[in-house]
Amino acid sequence: MRKLLLVVLTICAASCSLQSTSVSTEVEQKVASAAQKGDLRLIAFSGRRTVVPGYENEDIVSLKKTCGLVFERNSGDVVKSDKDIDDRNKLYDFAVAYNTKIYKLCKAKNDLELRHKNER
To answer: Distance of CA 25 to CAs 2, 32, 77, Å?
Structure first.
């Protein structure tokens, strides 16, 4: 089961990387590393409300239940300078690209586990 799951995640990761050539190498490396470790949590920003970049209109409780969340440090609502705004925008863009790929892997893993459970 574990080997099959790894194969499915690897295939999905490969197809994700073929779909978007504009995504940075850093995102690809972080996604591959997270998948290898089995850490398929989505990046979330804290503040007055929790924001999951790329999934702002989705139910946070459902995302947390499906994949889990990891909160980005220094992602609160307070920005003090133009540099902070620029850094936040870059971090947000990274998180959107990362979350999009990780969510696909997480969903594939959950679907596979559900199928396996139903076969028993």
So the answer is: 27, 10, 28
Q: Which distant-in-sequence residues (6+ apart) come within 8 Å of 110 by Cβ?
A: 66, 67
Q: Which residues have a Cβ under 8 Å from the Cβ of 119 and sit 6 or more positions away?
A: none
List pLDDT tens digits, range 2-47.
Answer: 555 555 555 555 555 444 444 478 999 999 999 999 999 999 999 8
**Three-state secondary-structure class, residue 74:** coil
The contacts of residue 85 (CB under 8 Å, 6+ apart) are 79
Burial bucket for residue 16 (CB in 10 Å: 0-12, 13-18, 19+)? buried
Q: What is the DSSP string of 94-114?
A: HHHHHHHHHHHHHHHHHHHHH
Residues listed for the chain: 120
Give the tokens for residue 43. Answer: 């990046």
Q: Which domain holds residue 107?
A: 2-119
Strands (E), 19-112: 42-44, 69-71
